[in-house]
Amino acid sequence: MAGHGTDGHPHGADRLCEAGDRVYSRAVRRGRLPRRDAEPVPCLLELALLHPDPDDMDWLVPTSPQEVMARLLRGMYDEVSASQRRVGSAVEAFEWYAGLDRPVPASRSAAEGPAIRVLDGLARIQAAMDEATQACTTEVLTVQPGGIRREAELSEGLHRATTLRGRGVRMRDLYTHVARHGHGLLSYLELMGDAVEARTLDEVIDRLILFDRTVAFIPANAERTMALELRHPALVEYLGTVFDRLWRLAIPLTAPLPETGIEGVSHRERSIASLLAEGHQDAVIAERLGISVRTCRAHIARLSETLGAASRTQLGVRIAQAGLDGFRRSAATSPGRGARPAR
Question: Residue ranges of the HTH luxR-type domain (predicted)?
């Protein structure tokens, strides 16, 4: 597994440098070590032999020697046809890691990895998701917040989705209602056919991807440059239950949104009115509904004009008088079947 080191550490996991050997061995013996202790050996983070502790980001925990050996074995099989001389080096590495091995709980095998793993960097996130895609055999559940999906995001996921469809995997996607206005999403779903089913809600939880209800991926920071890979059965089952309940409340993408019952008030404006009644600021409302702050304020202005409100305070009163403050509660139990498309 050479070629993944940094300057001063040009090696792979099959032959660590002397400094990396010492730090990794200490991490295995102690179970974790402070992040500062690994600063002289960035190769250990590059090679995913150390990764952030999900309970305390100032500490690093080692990847188990068993998992490292499994990773090396997979790499060896992939490369053996191109380089037979790599076999001897890899075998030596297996023996070295085996000497560091320690017992792990019987409930989780080395191939399954840790129950919670921090993935630091887009490349590592992509690699973990590609691995989960290859292992997936039944279903993929996703929650995609943020409004209209960009063409680049849809193109990036198309190859993975096509691979899954070829194996008969079913996919269910949850979006915000705003995503209905994106032509790219409609084209993507048309290409995928019956393999993908999509529904929408006023707002959804943060991004979630579930493979076969055995492994889940969620963001670990606001920038989405870090993610958590979850394999703990209780956590994955909980996230699957959350998805199922949101799915039952959502409206199929092919069905129209329900009418609001008030002339001149669109479905989106009614959702905004309900969030305003809850006391949320414009920026928060925009983020939760997947629209820009500018668009949100334009809807608020139109809502004020429709309800005859001259100020935000008066708008709050008008919203309550019109019964718009309880819309989100009633919408959750009324999917609006048969209604005309909202504005």
Answer: 258-323
